[in-house]
Amino acid sequence: MVVIFYGGNILVGKAINDLPPFTIAFFRLFIALLVLLPIGWKSAWHYRSVFVTHRWPFLMMTLSGITFFNTFIYGALQYTTATNVSVLETVIPVVTVILSVFLLKEKLRNVQWIGIVLSFFGAIWVVLDGRILALTSMNWNIGDGIMVGAIFSWSIYSICVKKYMHLFPAYGSLLVMTGISVLVLLPVVGIEWMIRGVPSFNGAVHIASLFYLGIFPSFIALLFFNRAVDILGPSKASVFLNFLPVVTVIGAYFWLGETITTMKIIGAVLVICGVFITTQFGDKMQEGEEFDTIPS
């Protein structure tokens, strides 16, 4: 579900890229704040001392995962293609794994590293339709540079979620993080409007799109992802993000009328196999080793 909602985030973000990036990020979070307010205000108030005590890691989670990650994506989509964004998003699991190994001392087995590489290769295969050498001839631009910020933002967020999120209530933390992000982005949006002018909102299209972004990627998907990181760890949970190009291709088929080729199906199979190896096969090996170490 997380990958489906985030895949929709890319498609919808590209569809309404006539709106400025900070404007999109602000209004999606403002809508999420309205949805979260009746759900999370009690737990947020009850745990207010916890938020103050652990304010620095909480602020890091807020800025990296809520405030700026999608702002970077919407900014990138102003200049580059959804294809380039999909390619660069496949780097997120790799960066997350590397940071997890060094910062969290997370241990992965060789077979799980193989699964990570396989899913990464499969994701790029899907995006490029099997033309791997085309990666060197793609038109890279400033939007791709902006995506580097998104890669590191989400990787840092994933690490922080594993290390600190258990200290905070699920709904209350999302409410406070979203509220802080709205306050941070409000003056930025004002500056954006002064420079670029107040955008004209296209009625139903923009409103429906912003409501989707505010409810599904900003609230439901984030809640599910945080839970997945808690259960699987940041490395394994992030590997599932390699499904994003697969979901994006399927969404583009039904929504934009694009075709699904045999090469893209092959790439999707590689992604599925890689994710399965990373999340399942390594655990079975670990369980077997634990069983072998039980004294007789």
From TrEMBL:
Main location, first listed in the record: membrane
Keywords: Cell membrane, Membrane, Transmembrane, Transmembrane helix
Keyword Hydrolase applies: no
Residues passing through the membrane, by range: 22-44, 56-77, 83-104, 111-128, 140-159, 171-191, 203-225, 237-256, 262-281
Membrane topology: Multi-pass membrane protein
UniProt xrefs under InterPro entries: AA-Vitamin_Transporters, EamA_dom, EmrE-like
Compartment list: Cell membrane
UniProt keyword annotation of Lipid metabolism present: no
EamA domain segment(s): 2-127, 142-279
Family indicated by similarity: Belongs to the EamA transporter family.
Annotated protein name in UniProt: DMT family transporter
Lineage, opening ranks: Bacteria, Bacillati, Bacillota, Bacilli, Bacillales
